[in-house]
């Protein structure tokens, strides 16, 4: 546990010798590591301390004395305050190169493995890409207005007042300030802590969490806002199961995944606004193409898709193989995955509900022989599953990861314990302008 001390206000000079995995510059000052927000590798800066800890300190840039050649002007005017992005001041090529370096370091340090081949990084449009997220809401009496935005970078207890967001889906990105105006005129202004947004291909959904029942006046205001701007409006009076549409009566959220191959039809997935979907629609298309290339599904293959969610990978795989089975821990997602399979006419897909962080080796699907596996776990990774899978019959595994450390750990397990070779790996820029590292790897049997 860290121990904070009093923080001096006198600025100090620092030379940035590294870029941390969270996007902050790293310096050594008087023999102690200092993480400096807003600083880039190679820069000489003036900084001021924000927090002291036993083994490191935290600081922020006051002035850049010698700038990195890779420094660029942030596009968003809220960049210095908002926690939504941390790397807008770093050029795009260096951002993705930094993420590839982070992945390589994790493979070497944690997994003790190195890919035989490094895949070219996948990149898509870096602006207006975010189709899902959560906005915080705070009615600040001292300022006499409502704040709608992401949490502040330097103080997560506070909300950044933003008028528009450059990385948010354009249907909403230019209208964040209008949400503040809307809420400022509502009776429930103090009872709405957050707004979640989710965009399908045809409509943007807004989910208003409210702690008290809404008045008829407030319901009418939200409906009118949705009608005026083309948003589907949902209400959430309680837990996630309480979410229901206010307007229109039956909105339809869906997105299409192009097959990229004339032999196979596209897939369309319907979803609910709080369901997990890949945040970046453009990158999801590119990721799908790469996953199919690496998995190399054949007409006779039996494929197991673990942490399958809505069937984002399961259904495109199903178009190409003899049989595919998806396993997911959330019952609602499994139900909608099965419905999506039926809606797309994919009859060879099966789905099971199972907590993959518990031992499932007694389950029927876990006992069966699978030619190939696809894994897309959350940040914790898949080490629990890898205690009993894959079986000897499995000859190829594609692993999609949102956390390089857990991928590296699991890569070590697959190589050392199960006899696989890490054939190829690379990063995918799912979250441009952030330090988040999304990656993909393929493992093949060594013998």
Automatic annotation (TrEMBL):
PROSITE patterns: SAM_MT_RNA_M5U, TRAM, TRMA_1, TRMA_2
Residues the record lists as binding S-adenosyl-L-methionine: 278, 307, 312, 328, 355, 376
InterPro entries on file: 23S_rRNA_MeTrfase_RlmD, MeTrfase_TrmA_AS, MeTrfase_TrmA_CS, NA-bd_OB-fold, SAM-dependent_MTases_sf, TRAM_dom, U5_MeTrfase_fam
Keyword Metal-binding: yes
Active site: 402, 402 (nucleophile)
Keywords associated with the record: 4Fe-4S, Iron, Iron-sulfur, Metal-binding, Methyltransferase, rRNA processing, S-adenosyl-L-methionine, Transferase
Domain of life: Bacteria
Annotated GO MF terms: 4 iron, 4 sulfur cluster binding; iron ion binding; RNA binding; rRNA (uridine-C5-)-methyltransferase activity
Recorded coiled-coil stretches: none
Catalytic activities: uridine(1939) in 23S rRNA + S-adenosyl-L-methionine = 5-methyluridine(1939) in 23S rRNA + S-adenosyl-L-homocysteine + H(+)
Main function: Catalyzes the formation of 5-methyl-uridine at position 1939 (m5U1939) in 23S rRNA.
Protein name in the entry: 23S rRNA (uracil(1939)-C(5))-methyltransferase RlmD
Organism of provenance: Rhodanobacter denitrificans
Gene name as annotated: rlmD
């Amino acid at each position: 546990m860290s121990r904070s001390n009093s923080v001096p206000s006198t600025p100090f000079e620092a030379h940035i010798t590294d870029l941390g995995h969270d996007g902050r510059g790293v310096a050594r000052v008087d023999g102690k590591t200092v993480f400096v927000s807003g600083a880039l590798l190679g820069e000489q800066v003036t900084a001021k301390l924000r927090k002291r800890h036993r083994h490191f300190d935290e600081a922020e840039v006051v002035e850049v004395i010698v700038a990195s050649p890779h420094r660029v002007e942030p596009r968003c005017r809220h960049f210095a305050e908002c926690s939504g992005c941390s790397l807008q001041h770093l050029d795009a090529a260096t951002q993705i190169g930094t993420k590839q370096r982070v992945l390589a370091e994790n493979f070497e340090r944690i997994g003790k493995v190195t890919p035989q081949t490094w895949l070219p990084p996948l990149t898509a449009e870096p602006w207006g890409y975010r189709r899902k997220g959560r906005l915080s809401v705070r009615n600040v009496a001292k300022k006499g207005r409502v704040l709608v935005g992401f949490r502040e970078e330097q103080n997560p207890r506070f909300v950044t007042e933003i008028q528009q967001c450059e990385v948010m889906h354009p249907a909403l990105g230019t209208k964040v300030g209008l949400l503040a105006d809307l809420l400022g005129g509502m009776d429930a202004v103090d009872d709405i802590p957050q707004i979640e947004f989710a965009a399908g291909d045809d409509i943007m959904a807004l989910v208003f969490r409210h702690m008290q029942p809404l008045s008829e006046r407030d319901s009418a205001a939200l409906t009118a806002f949705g009608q005026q701007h083309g948003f589907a409006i949902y209400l959430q009076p309680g837990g996630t199961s309480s979410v229901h549409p206010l307007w229109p009566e039956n909105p339809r959220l869906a997105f299409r995944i192009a097959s990229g191959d004339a032999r196979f039809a596209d897939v369309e997935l319907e979803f609910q606004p709080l369901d997990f979907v890949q945040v970046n629609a453009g990158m999801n298309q590119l990721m799908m193409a790469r996953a199919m290339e690496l998995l190399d599904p054949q007409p006779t293959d039996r494929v197991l898709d673990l942490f399958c969610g809505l069937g984002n990978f399961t259904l495109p795989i199903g178009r190409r193989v003899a049989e595919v089975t998806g396993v997911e821990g959330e019952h609602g997602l499994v139900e909608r995955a099965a419905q999506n399979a039926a809606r797309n006419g994919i009859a060879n897909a099966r789905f099971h509900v199972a907590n993959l962080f518990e031992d499932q080796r007694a389950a029927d699907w876990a006992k069966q022989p699978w030619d190939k596996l696809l894994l897309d776990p959350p940040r914790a990774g898949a080490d629990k599953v890898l205690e009993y899978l894959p079986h000897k019959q499995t000859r190829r595994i594609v692993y999609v990861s949102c956390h390089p450390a857990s991928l590296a750990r699991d890569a070590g397990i697959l190589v050392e314990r199960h006899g696989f070779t890490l054939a190829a790996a690379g990063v995918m820029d799912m979250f441009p302008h952030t330090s988040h590292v999304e990656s993909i790897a393929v493992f093949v049997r060594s013998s």
